[in-house]
Amino acid sequence: MNAELPPVIAIDGPSGSGKGTVASRAAQALGWNLLDSGALYRILAHVAQQAGVSADEPARLEELARGLRVAFMRTPTGAEQILLDDRDVTAVVRSEQSGKRASELAVIPQVRQGLVGVQRGFRRAPGLVADGRDMGTVIFSDAGLKIFLTASVEERAQRRYKQLKQKGLNATLPTLFSDLIARDERDRNRSVSPLKPAPDAVVLDTTGMPVEAVVDQVLDRARRRYGEAAAGRRQGG
Ligand code: DC
User: Fold this and answer.
1) What angle, 0 to 180 degrees and rounded to 10, lies between the N-to-C axes of helices 173-189 and 96-105?
2) Which residue has a Cα nearest atom 13 of ligand 1?
3) What is the domain range of residue 60?
4) Is residue 144 part of a domain?
5) Among 11, 173, 224, 227, which residue's Cβ finds the most Cβ atoms within 10 Å?
6) For residue 236, is it within any domain?
7) Average of pLDDT values for 50-59?
8) Left if phi > 0, otherwise alpha if psi is -120 to 50, otherwise beta: which for 142?
């Protein structure tokens, strides 16, 4: 049906399921483009705050969403870098505060609508690995490979804690744990695009699994599904 569109691997799951790391490594191994859709919600939260636009101004939020110009890059040392209009916004995007505010804005239908075109714009040759909550159900519902990652709440909070600490950001485990539960609730129970696996998604429980093993599983499936197009760089990770 969409034979002429570049292939997509959709990787969805709750906060801390490892989807960001897995998507980023898979994209690198394949030499495909990467879309971190959560970062778009986070950037919108930041931009809205800067512009003094609040959650009860959906039309203005939609306009801001449509106008986002974001690129996901890597520094020469391999670190991820998120650019907004060529400005480095990586640190502000990764803060827990942005994540919380993003989750609040993500329940607003106009916000989601405004970001649809921005997200689909990342589908470029040779292929796209997209991670988020509704990649397989809504944004790329025609994706040829859909993965839904899960893990226990305890493990997800631990992973998040380690990640933030490594980045030198402030965090405490009990706060992360309760924030995670609140965010899961909100993401799963919202009326628009709730977090759930697509009917044709492969569900992988990654509790206790090293990230490399999850990446290998995704790459195996990608190569089986897409053959040559997913032959990638074969650099093993
Ligand atoms: O994956 P993340 O933590 O960066 O996402 C931040 C918030 O954005 C998350 O709580 C829910 C929202 N989000 C969404 O609703 N749909 C997506 N595709 C990605 C993120």
Assistant:
1) 20
2) 38
3) 8-225
4) yes
5) 11
6) no
7) 96
8) alpha
Decide whether any atom of ligand 1 lies within 6 Å of the 131 Cβ: no
Select from 28, 18, 72, 38 the least CA-distant residue to 219.
28
- CB of 206 closer than 6 angstroms to any ligand 1 atom: no
- Structural domain total, the chain: 1
pLDDT tens-digit series, residues 104-149: 999 999 999 999 999 999 999 999 999 999 999 999 999 999 999 9
Q: To test ligand 1's pocket by mutation, which of 103, 188, 189 has the most ligand atoms within 8 angstroms of CB?
A: 103
19 in ligand 1 pocket by Cβ < 6 Å?
no
Identify the bridge partners of residue 129 per DSSP, sorted by sequence position: 9, 34
Q: Does the pTM exceed 0.85?
A: yes
In angstroms, the CA 79 to CA 75 distance is 5
Where residue 132 sits, what CATH number does that domain have?
Answer: 3.40.50.300
